[in-house]
Amino acid sequence: MESTPPRHTLHRSIIFAGLLAAWVVCSGLLDLFHLSLGVISCGLVTWMSSDLLFANRETSLRRRLRQGRRMAWYLLWLLWQIVLANLHLLRLSFAPRSALQPQIVRYETKLETDFEKFLLANSITLTPGTVTMKILGNTFYIHAISDFAAEGLNGPMEAHIAHIFAGPEA
Q1: Contact assessment for residue 115 and residue 52, using Cβ atoms and an 8 Å cutoff
Q2: HSE on the CB side for 105, CA within 13 Å?
Q3: How far apart are CA 4 and CA 130, in angstroms?
Q4: In whole angstroms, what is the distance from residue 95 CA to residue 151 CA?
Q5: What is the pLDDT of residues 51-61, one digit of tens each?
Q6: Is the entire prediction scored with pTM above 0.90?
Q7: What's the pLDDT band for 74 if we cut at 50, 70, 90?
Q8: What is the CA radius of gyration of the chain?
Q9: What phi, psi does 143 have (nearest 5°)?
Q10: Residue finishing a domain among 53, 69, 91
Q11: Could you tell me if 134 and 117 are in contact, meaning their C-beta atoms sit under 8 angstroms apart?
Q12: Tally of domains within the chain
């Protein structure tokens, strides 16, 4: 029987602990029944999907922590972009109908990993006024509600995501 290398076990343990912490915080229920359900659910999710989050097992814990810090800053930045996009949609709702210019935008990304592309696609979709419809290789097909929303796709979102996973010199 093949044993799991220690590094894989560490990554799975980190994923399990993070999921269980999220379970406890989100459920708010600390009785034995609900904690048992949380342990079982988090164990199954960790077992089925731990390769999705940490595909490269050779990355050091220090680098993972740096990526986590950068991800936290990115999420704050993304939250601000969502607020700005909501304000834009509010302005559009009071503007004449001609201000709406729905369009499909073809966007080429330089991001390399599937997880980076996944993060970009979800960030675009979370931003009001844009929806990622399809990804083919490095090409994203995005629905934008206006010219302003479409122009925002060439902004810093991709650069922020690339910076999260860049080396320490970035």
Answers
A1: yes
A2: 23
A3: 42
A4: 19
A5: 665 556 666 77
A6: no
A7: very high
A8: 20
A9: -90, 125
A10: 53
A11: no
A12: 2
